[in-house]
Predict the 3D structure of the following.
Amino acid sequence: MTTAELADRFRGKSVVQPGEVATPGASSPRGGSVSPVHQGTWGLAPGRTLSVVGPPGFGLTRVGLAALADQSRLGPVAYLDVRGWLCPAAAWEVGIEAHRLIVVRCDNPVPWARVAATLVSGLRAVFAEVPAGAKEAQLRKLAMLAKTHRTALVLRPVHGDIPAGVSYLRLEAAGVDWAGAGDGHGRLEGRRLRFQATGKGVRGMTTTVEFEDHGTDPLRVVSGLAIAPAGHAIG
Amino acid sequence: MWFPDWRLRRPDTPSGEPCQVVDDRNRVIACNEIAATAGVAIGMQRRSAEAVCPTVVTLASDPAAEAIAFEPILGAMEAVVPRVEPTEPGLAYIPLDGAVAYYGGETATAERIAKELDAIDIDGYRLGVAVGPFSARQAALRATAANPIFIVDDEASFLASLDVSVIDHDDLVATFRWLGIRTLGEVAGLPREAVVSRFGTVGLHAHRVATGEQRRTTPRDVPDDPRVTELFDPPLDNLEQAAFVSRSLASRLIEIAHDTGAVPHRVEIDVEAADGTVRSRTWRTADPFDEGSLAERVRWQLRAWLDSVSGGLRGGLVRITITPADLSGTGRQLGLHEDAASAAEVDRALVQTQALVGMDNVLQARPQGGRDPLDRVSWHRWGEEPSTLERDLDAPWRGRVPGSPPALTPPEPPRLEVEWDTGMPVRVRLGSRWEPVLSWAGPWRRMGRWWLGEEAADRYQLVTSAGAFLCEVRDGLAYLTGVYD
C-alpha cells in the first residue's frame, strides 16, 4: 500500500512521509500536541524497559514485539506468555525470525518472577506478560536486572498497570483506527494505533505517539517524541 | 554396518503397499521396493513423490524411536567387537583393528558379525569393510541383499573407481562433470594446490576423500580431562529428566571443547545404574557434534537404555559421563554478531527455564499451512528437532482468513456475545459493556472435515472502537478465535 493510499484510507489524519518532519504544533486526532519527529525505526535499546498498558485489541502485542525486532538479529527473543494466547505469526511479521523466538508459557504467578528473571539475565530481549499477582518490588527488580544485563525488556500487564518509575517508557493505549473492512466486504488491512507515552523516554512529558501497522510490515512511528534518528534505537 | 530400510522397520509400515518415510523438511529419506518401482526416489519432495505414486503411504521419521529399536543390534555387535560407533539409526561403524587379528582376517570377522545378526533374526543388513569410514560407507552401499558383505581389498583402486557424485556437494560435482572429471581417481590425480586454489575448503575436502585421506584429528592442546559427569541421588529413571540432563551435559561438554577451539567427532557415553551395572556406547559423526546434535544422541541413548525393550537399567541411573574423542578444529562458525559466551548464556538460561516451567512450556514455532491462525503454527519444544510439518505451507488453503493473523489466539476459544441484525453483526459484548460494530468483513466459510465430525463454521472480522476481533460462528453461536492486538 502506498503512502497516498494510506492517507486516503485514514482520511483527515496526517501521514508523515519517510524522512519528512511533521508540522510543529500539529494536532493529533485526539487533540493532543504532537511534537516534530523524524520518520525512523521503532526499537528498544539494550537495558531499557518499555511497558505497554491497555486492554487487548489496541496493538500492544505487536508494538511490544516490534520494539524487540532489532535485538532479535543479535540473539533469541523470549516471550513470557501468561495466558498462552500468543500467535507467533505476529512476531514473525514484525521481523523476528521463527528460529529466534522462544515462547515460555507460565500461567502460575508464583514462579513467574523467577522465570522472568532467568530470561532477562540470559537473553538480549524479553517480552514479559505480567500476571495479576505480580508485586511492584518484583517489577522494579526485573527492570534493574534488565539494565544490569543490558536486556531490552517489554512488560505488558494482563490486568492493571505497571507502577510509575519501573519503565523507561510507558505506552498506554489511547485508540485504534482500522482500515480495509467494510460492511461485509474487504478485509482488515492496516491500522493506526494511538498511545499516550510517559516516562524518561519522552523526557517526562505526556505525549501522543502514533504507529502505522500494515500487517506484514514492521511498525513505524508516524508522530510522537519517542523516536530516534533512523537506524538508531530509542533510548 | 548399514540397514538400508531401517526407517521402514516399524510397526505401522504397511506391507504390500507403497510406503515412504519423510523427514522434517518433507523430503523422502526412505521408501520400499513398491514405491521405488512406482518412481519414488530418496531425496524427492513429499508432494512430488505423492504425485508420481498417489497411493503411497507416508510416514514421518521418528529418529528417537528408530534409535531405540537399533539398540539391541548394537548390543549384539558388542559381543563380537568391544566397541561399536553408531552414527544414526540404521548405520554404525565397527572398528575392526583388533577383531581382524582375533578372528583371523577381515572375511572371518565380517562373517562372524553376519552370524551374530542372523542369530538374533536380523536380516537386510549390508556390511562394508574398508580402511576408513568413507570407504566403508561406500562399500556398504555397494553390498546387495544377495551378497551383503562387501570387502574392499585395494582401497586406492576402489576409491579411484567411484563416481564423483559420492562427494556430498552438488555444485562441486556439477563443476567436476563440466570439467570432464568423472571419478574420484581423476580428482585425486589433480594437484592439490590447484584444487584448493580453485575450490577452496570444499575442494580440499573432496581431494582428501579422493586420495583416501579421510578425516584426521588435529593435534592441539586438549584439556587433561575433558569429560563431563553428572551424579544423581536419588537415581534418575524418568525419560523427561533424562532429556533435560542430556541437554545440560551436551552444553557443558561443547563449552569445554570450545575453550580450546576443538569440537568432538566422537563421544563415549557411560552410565552407571543403581545396581552397579555399567553400560557404554560410542557415537560418531562425520560433521563435528554441536550442542543440539550431541544432546540428541545422548537423549536417544539414555532413552534406549532406560526403555524396557533393551532390558532397562535396574534402579535408574546414578551417573552419566560423556567423554569426547576425535577432537578437531572444525568448529561451529558463529554469526558476525554472535559470540560463543552469549550463545552459551542463552542456552543456560533456557535450560534453567525448562527446569522451572517444564520442557513442554519452553517452545519454538514454525509456520505451516492451514485455514485458521492456530492451524498455521507448528510448535515444538525448544532444543528438540521439530517434527514434520502437518500441513503444506505452499498449498492454496481455500477458505483461509486473509491478511495478517491476529496476535492473540486463545487455544480454547471463549464464547463471544454478538448481536445480529438480518445477518449482519451490530454489537459485540466486551466484558460488561456492549460495543457497536463499526465495520466488519467476512464471512469466510470453513467446511470442516465432516467425516471426522468437524462442524462447518463462518469466520468474521469485527471492528469496534476497542479493537478488532476474529470470531467464528458455529451452530448459531459465536466464539472469539483471535484478537488483533
About this structure: Residues 239-259 of chain B form the longest helix (21 residues). Chain B is about 30% helix and 25% strand. Chain B touches chain A through 54 residues (CB under 8 Å).
